[in-house]
Amino acid sequence: MKTIFEKSVAGREGCWPCEGLAEEAYIPTELLRDGDIGLPSASELDVVRHFTKLSQRNMGVDGNFYPLGSCTMKYNPKFTEVVAGLPGFTRLHPVLPQLQGAGGLCQGALEVMYETEHLLSEITGMHAYTLHPMAGAHGELTGVMLMAAYHKDRGNKKTKIIVPDSAHGTNPASAAIAGYDVVTVESVNGIVDPDALAAVLDDEVAGMMMTCPNTLGLFETHLPKIVKMLRKVDALLYYDGANLNAIMGKMRVGDVGFDIVHLNLHKTFATPHGGGGPGSGPVGVCEKLKQFLPISRVAKQEDGQFYLDYNHPKSIGYIAPFYGNFGVVLKAYAYILRLGGVGLTRATENAVLAANYMRKRLDGHLEVPYDRICMHEFVASAADQAKKGVRALDFAKALLDKGHHAPTIYFPLIVPESIMIEPTETENKETLDHFIDDLIEIAQLVDTNPEALQAAPVTLPVTRLDETKAARGMELTDDL
Amino acid sequence: MIPEDLLYAKSHEWVMVEGDIATVGITQFAQEQLGDLTFIELPEVGDAFEAGNEMGSVESVKAASEIYAPVTGEVIEVNEELEDAPEKVNEEPYGDGWLLKFKIKGEPEGLLDAEGYADAINAEAD
Amino acid sequence: MPYVPHTEDEVREMLATIGVDSIADLFAEITDDMRPKSFDLPEGLSEMEVVTKLEAMANKNATDRTSFLGAGFYDHYIPAAVDALTMRGEFYTAYTPYQPEASQGTLQAIFEYQTAVTRLLGMECANASVYDGGTALYEALMMAVRKTKRRKIIVSEALNPIYRVMLESYTSNLDLEFVTVPHKDGMTDIEGLKAAIDGETAALLVQNPNFFGSINDFTELFTAAKAQKAISIVSSYPVLQTLLKTPGDMGADIAVAEGQSLGLPLSFGGPYLGIMTCTKKMVRQMPGRIVGRTVDSEGRTGYVLTLQAREQHIRRQKATSNICSNQSLCALRAIVHMSALGELGMKRAARVSIERAHICADRLTAIDGVEMLTKGPFGNEFAITLPVNAYEVTAKLTARGVVPGFPLGRYYEGLENGLLVACTEKTSEEQIGIFAEMLKGALR
């Protein structure tokens, strides 16, 4: 499909008719640019048609089952868009509450933040939250910075952070960017093993980052023991909330001893993923870490007025220009209010039910290396099929031809040819059955017609793309 | 095929020593493991390394790997053609796909001969 | 239950397939000692009740004030097409394009976004965006540190202070040295910056127009940086960049911008859009997603995420950054916004904004005791000094219905009487008139 630039005709008008004085009237010409910029020049209809057509070259939850493991592609309720689009919120300038006497002009927005922080605290059993981190990975970085601030305050000399081998790649990256050395602990039977942990745990460990259930979809049964071991060396336990949707209402990470947690509002709390963002990654902490949270902090006066509090001398400072992705927070807040405590727990239960149902139905057709009760997702392996020339990648592409988005593949790294399936609670049984039937059919084709699988997809706007050419050629823009 | 006339580091670099000049590349085994290379990051002429230091990296679409200096010395020449044609390393890892040349300081140490390297690869494969 | 489709019969059937008696059995591994000590959440509400509640909260926000607030975040008009197109479920309920064949819409849109911002800033490469303009600056700084292997950063004090405090926090655990070169009456001190650059300098950070609205040409400054092999980084304002000399023409190595002004509502601080562009030489250091053009097995044009070997799912702790997403929907809004306005519309919006700001500056400085702080050329934002404390005047006027701007004393000692005033194409001459009259009254 041609780009909007290729469809442009110089001089064609967009949708802005009013004209100001030429810029030369105000700004000396040596400070101005010359010539055309090369921005699109198309009629409004042409623009509408172009982007409508582009949208039709995408799969999304609204149109397709999207069992992308670890990403929680559940249904995004439409009414949350209405809420986030209310002019009373969208028109608010972020510096407004910083002006003297203007806090009164944004009480509603400050209340949303205050209430959301308290709801998240109750859901996870943490003492306090910041909503500032703008994505999960940003939450991780904030969390690791909080660890650093805690140890610095205590006069601890800590240099290392432990990360399990099943962790998301962002965990070690976040730890490294905050200045720590990363130590990997290997899993035994798919979960963190206390003996393996003991072998790498010492006084220099600042903390450990865990995902629970982990990326294999398995619950970390040694958790209480791990907490005790870390406490002994004054190391903090960090909870990567990517999989909170598997335990919400069944366990609170604060109660079991996690010190820091980041949540992914776009996963657990159903805000749309937007093609890769914006997300929101609030960070919760236990009581002793509250003093280090980023500023500003939203607070409530005795008269019920909300205000921004900047007076936290031990704070790690500013990790966002303002208060995080407020528009995303609003949607998550609306979602929590809609579901309530019972609804959130039901969401958890049904996510786990669906994953186990699919896991069991797949039994005997595709290997499931850790074949026991899983949480909200499970990992299958196409290692056997790969020996016959059909890899996890081919399974993924064949599923696209069947109208499903593919599961996550080649992650976690500890399962070869992994296929990670997360159905979520919002998909009906017919959809789950349909997907499994298709997956079984594909598995059967491995022996009878592997070429067809290797050639997939054939029903989409493009077939497999040459990634080597893309990386070598580096064509990153539509050159004039 | 592992050329007999070269020396090898366990981290999969080969070295050809001529007087105090060492030409360095990555092995056939290494390029096969990485797949189609898309980018090779090399040090600049004049940079000095101790044997075992990280001196650059090679990237394919799905993998990246560090390259380590197999000898101690100063870089005197880099293969500039690789900037536009990284595929040369895939095509001729022991020929046109060489990476750089060192002026060696002292004697090369801890390097393997062809047989030793073959054993090392086999051990890794197990 | 909302959004859960299963009937009781279906649940029973599924449990039977799994081979357990109840849903509780699925959670048996969470032993009693790990169960919640409390889960005291409100009861669920109907959709209508939630919307009503949130409408009431929205109404507690007074958005009917006439506002001259900017400070890097501007209320530009957003064409209706932006919402209509970006709210299509195919776009906003998709995720990161891991399966390119099923994500050509998102990928091509990002490619077009990369093209547009690259042209706007006169640079060679762009990534698919990061969280916001401040994060973009931090990531740019880290690119320079990696590239030069040096640790000294020169920052102009006329760079947005909201970003300067972010940089300070982000880098607090890293061994970097910051040298801040003071502003001169709101002007970027080019000579001072030049003098500060030396052979140890990794990066030079400046902003155009600067925080006070002043427009500069940094060509000479960047040439001086280049001579010391330091990396020049400039933070830009995309709307004005349709008219101003580009960072590329000035010789910048990296140009970043807050993209909020390209079709994103102010929305109390986010989600926004961190635009990152650079020269080809720097692209390997750039973090985040990047889309590239290629062909499929039939030779048809298509798009993929590329240069992924820089990223954390391959490099883990050696990745260029921990950022593993982009503000994709915001980037989509930006490219749709730029397309809907078109090249001509974008330039017109900038021209009208500049014109209004100059009318406003004339009206305000006609008042006794009100003077321009900055003496040079400006665009749609300018700094004035009042005869009294700007904080107090702001409070007074805000109570009367006009938010007059941003009091500079919040970040700049000695500028307690300074006020930063912004206009956009949405600012009417009538509003400017009311503002001027009100200010005159308040100063009397």
Describe this entry's structure for a reader.
The complex is a heterotrimer of chains A (480), B (126) and C (444). Chain A is an alpha/beta fold and 480 residues long. Among the domains of chain A are: 1-57, no CATH class; 80-338, Aspartate Aminotransferase, domain 2. Helices cover 37% and strands 11% of the residues of chain A. In chain A, a hairpin with a 2-residue loop joins strand 4 and strand 5 (191-192). In chain A, helix 11 (326-362) crosses helix 14 (429-448). Chain B is of the alpha+beta class and 126 residues long. Chain C has 15 helices and 15 strands. The radius of gyration of chain C is 25 Å and the shape is globular. Chains A and C meet through helix 1, helix 2, helix 3, helix 4 and helix 5 of A and helix 1, helix 2, helix 3, helix 4 and helix 5 of C.
Please, how many domains of chain B? 1
CATH superfamily of the domain at 80-338 in chain A: Type I PLP-dependent aspartate aminotransferase-like (Major domain)
Content-based structural category of chain B: alpha+beta
Shape of chain A: globular
Query: What level of helicity do the residues of chain B show?
Result: 10-25%
Secondary structure layout plus pairing:
The complex is a heterotrimer of chains A (480), B (126) and C (444).
Chain A: H1 44-55, H2 79-84, H3 87-90, H4 107-124, E1 128-130, H5 136-154, E2 160-164, H6 170-177, E3 181-185, E4 187-188, E5 191-192, H7 194-200, E6 205-211, H8 223-232, E7 236-241, H9 253-256, E8 260-263, H10 265-268, E9 283-285, E10 297-300, E11 306-309, H11 326-362, E12 378-381, H12 383-387, H13 392-401, E13 408-409, E14 418-421, H14 429-448, H15 450-455, H16 467-473
Parallel strand pairs in A: 2-3, 2-6, 6-7, 7-8
Antiparallel strand pairs in A: 1-9, 4-5, 8-9, 10-11, 12-14, 13-14
Helix pairs in contact in A: 4-11, 5-6, 11-14
Chain B: E1 7-8, E2 13-18, E3 21-26, H1 28-34, E4 37-41, E5 48-49, E6 54-60, E7 64-68, E8 73-78, H2 87-91, E9 100-104, H3 114-125
Antiparallel strand pairs in B: 1-2, 2-3, 3-9, 4-6, 5-8, 6-7, 8-9
Chain C: H1 8-18, H2 23-26, H3 47-59, E1 66-67, H4 80-86, H5 89-92, H6 104-121, E2 125-126, H7 133-148, E3 152-156, H8 161-170, E4 177-181, H9 190-196, E5 201-208, H10 219-227, E6 231-236, H11 247-250, E7 254-258, E8 274-278, E9 291-295, E10 301-305, H12 312-315, H13 328-365, E11 371-372, E12 381-385, H14 390-400, E13 402-403, E14 406-407, E15 418-422, H15 429-443
Helix pairs in contact in C: 4-13, 6-13, 7-8, 13-15, 14-15
